[in-house]
């Protein structure tokens, strides 16, 4: 008869554990708005991975920063999880939000900060950059009307107030030269590019902007 109370305690403890596990939440990033099947009159962050002379195409990877709903982020508790960077990360600790709107999780392994649209961006713990999601990798024909607008001064690496404007031929020549250079660093795949597609979905402009991590 003495074993019955012990058994009840074990069952009660197990039920509490199962209830706690069942109530844990997993939040995921908001849906990406860019549809690679319909790029007409759209813009996207991108990486220019290379230029193919034979096909006269640019290899363009469309990317988007991970963005989470602010309410979801602020409702996270220890034991919940966030799906980021292709994996589920359990929340082990939460630091109070600072004056800049940054919430630190797991002792600095995970940073999320608020933007003006009431969302939260995820930033890499060891770099001053976002965590990016890959949308699609495309082979984009290089048209004669394609323009490259460069807001980065290649001599100094600093930001320009107005961009230098390059033609399609000038751009592809620059990419070819950079592909073969051993010391090039600013590049076109440093998460510092966005692309614009025209009304029929052709690549119309490539714009490179200054970022501190380049």
Name the quaternary structure.
single chain
The amount of helix comes to 10-25%
Q: Please report which band the strand proportion falls in: under 5%, 5-15%, 15-25%, 25-35%, 35-45% or over 45%.
A: 35-45%
User: How would a textbook summarize the main sheet?
Assistant: 7 strands, mixed
Low-confidence stretches: 6-22
Global mean pLDDT: 85
Compressed to H and E, one letter per element, the order equals HEEEEHEEEEEEEEHEE
Give the structural class: alpha+beta
Biggest sheet: strand arrangement = 10-3-2-13-14-11-12
Using only CA atoms, what is the Rg?
A: 24 Å
How would the global form be characterised? elongated
How many helical stretches? 3
**End-to-end gap:** 72 Å
Quick one: how many beta strands? 14
Chain-wise SSE layout:
Layout: H1 3-23, E1 26-27, E2 43-52, E3 57-65, E4 67-69, H2 70-74, E5 81-84, E6 87-90, E7 102-105, E8 110-114, E9 119-123, E10 132-141, E11 147-152, E12 159-167, H3 168-179, E13 193-197, E14 203-208
Parallel strand pairs: 1-5, 11-14
Antiparallel strand pairs: 2-3, 2-13, 3-10, 4-9, 5-6, 7-8, 8-9, 11-12, 13-14
């Amino acid at each position: 008869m003495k074993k019955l109370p012990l058994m009840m305690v074990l069952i009660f403890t197990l039920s509490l554990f199962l209830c706690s596990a069942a109530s844990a939440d997993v939040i995921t990033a908001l849906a990406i708005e860019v549809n690679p099947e319909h790029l007409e009159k759209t813009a996207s962050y991108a990486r220019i991975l290379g230029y193919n002379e034979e096909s006269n195409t640019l290899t363009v990877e469309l990317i988007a920063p991970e963005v989470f709903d602010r309410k979801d982020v602020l409702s996270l508790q220890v034991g919940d999880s966030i799906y980021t960077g292709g994996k589920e990360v359990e929340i082990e600790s939460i630091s109070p939000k600072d004056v800049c709107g940054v919430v630190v999780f797991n002792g600095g392994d995970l940073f999320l900060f608020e933007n003006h649209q009431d969302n939260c961006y995820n930033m890499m713990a060891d770099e001053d950059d976002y965590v990016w999601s890959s949308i699609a990798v495309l082979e984009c024909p290089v048209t004669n009307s394609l323009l490259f607008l460069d807001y980065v001064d290649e001599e100094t690496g600093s930001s320009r107030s107005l961009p230098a404007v390059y033609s399609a031929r000038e751009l592809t020549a620059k990419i070819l030269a950079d592909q073969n250079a051993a010391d090039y660093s600013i590049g076109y795949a440093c998460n510092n590019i966005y692309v614009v597609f025209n009304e029929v979905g052709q690549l119309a402009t490539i714009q490179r902007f200054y970022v501190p991590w380049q």
